[in-house]
Design brief:
Blueprint: H1 15-25, H2 32-36, H3 39-59, H4 62-85, H5 91-104, H6 107-110, H7 120-136
Helix pairs in contact: 3-4
């Protein structure tokens, strides 16, 4: 029997609120530790949180998985904020790149014309093929 993840709060949190919180943490009156972090210094935390997420998946504990996914999301927000501060890219760029990739690599869902029914194995084969073409064109 699957357990439903317990919600700590009934308040809906908007993604933009998290982005603003991260910007404030790294801002002038923000947290000294957060302000000192770099992409390089955060790598150990990204690895750690990813491993904890793997453990949460394997444990089958939905509450723990939700928490660990939040920690991975924190790392994405952190790295994106650091990049935005130097003018390299923003979280909006990250989201747009992901959106475009999902659409591009799922032509059987988002392509023009008739949608074809294909197997999961064929999806994986095409995903790899599309990814290889993308890498070759960079």
């Amino acid at each position: 029997m699957k357990r439903k993840a317990k919600r700590k709060s009934s308040k809906k949190v908007r993604f933009s609120e998290l982005v603003r919180i991260m910007a404030r943490l790294r801002g002038t009156n923000g947290c000294p530790w957060d302000k000192e972090q770099t992409h390089e210094s955060l790598l150990k935390y990204l690895r750690e949180e990813t491993e904890e997420t793997v453990h949460a998946v394997r444990s089958g504990d939905p509450e723990n998985l939700a928490e660990e996914l939040g920690d991975v999301l924190l790392q994405i927000l952190f790295h994106s904020q650091i990049a935005a501060e130097s003018g390299r890219f923003s979280i909006d760029d990250v989201l747009a790149i992901l959106r475009d990739k999902l659409v591009r690599r799922h032509p059987h869902v988002f392509g023009k014309g008739k949608k074809e029914k294909i197997s999961a194995d064929e999806v994986v084969r095409r995903w790899k093929e599309i990814k290889a073409r993308e890498k070759a064109s960079k």
